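Human:
Care to share another protein and its fold?

Assistant:
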Amino acid sequence: MVDDRPPHFATLAVHGGTAAIATAAIEQRVALLEAGTAAVAVRSGPLLLVTALQPLMRPGDHVIIARQAAHASLAEAEARFAAFGWEVRWADVDEQASFERAVTPKTQAILVAVIAASGEVADIAALAMVAKRAQVPLIVDNGIATPALCRPIEFGADIVVHSDGRFVAGTDAGVGFIVDGGRFNWLGPRRYPALSEKRAAGNGVPLAEAVGNFAYAAACREFMGPAALSFDAERVTAGLETLPIRMAQHTANARAVAEALAEHKAIASVAYAGLPGDRHHTLAQKYCRGAGGALITFRVDGGAERAGTIMSALMLIAAASDQSPAKSSLVAAGDSADGMLTLHIGLEDPADVIADLEQALAAS
């Protein structure tokens, strides 16, 4: 049965000394920030998505994923899924019906991002209804928006992930998070053996009965095994403490830069949901307090060749994807064949970021 009581916060079992205790404290904070019952720290990137799906999937099962993803390495993640015999059915975040059409008896989860790397904002509440009708959990990647802008569980998400934890952690520590919303009925019609079947390790009691509303997080922990995740816990703790202030600055800077790009004659288009004219601005108002986060996607005239020239001419902005979130960086969006670029806005003075972009555009 679904536990209809207000979710309580859970601390998962801690083993391994001081580092493990520090990690557990960080997990508690992330779960609290996301309005979840428990969280698990995982290495960011494709491995995190594999870990998030392992308690839910068996060979031959499907996961429905929005093409507009938060993490650039989703293609690598799909390759890893194939190694487990998992299949991906793709849907369009702007078309709710595409998710409904993708559902089959083998579908075990739906995965979308609050804000995608390409700028789209998901209608979380509407997709939560699709997932509810399909009797599968809705997994929402909140890595770009962070709980400072959006708490997906409050809009119907069952699980929240940060496949790229740089913005929530405030550091390039390589850590991401999986958060259990504590509401999904794992003993319902759509069976999830890792959570619903009797377990020898638990005296024959299914995990969903044994630990209640943090069963999914406990299952993720079991699948991870005893290997310790190495990251600078002190830096991540400091980053969590400054999250609201940092994200306010990130989004203010991003809006200023997006406005400047939208007015530049060399820019063909700008996708940033924080701009009133953006097609996802209404959803950003509903889910993200009107903010578009720290990522801007834009297209330059001249295609891939000019995009590459612009990246080579940058002086302040880094032309790399693995920078600290405090530093602005510019990366190709996809294969950049049509001149699409994604700008990660840091905490520098936005006037300096704009000036660097202008000189790089002029040099191209």
Remarks:
- Residues 183 and 235 are 31 Å apart (CA to CA).
- The first strand starts at residue 38 and ends at 43.
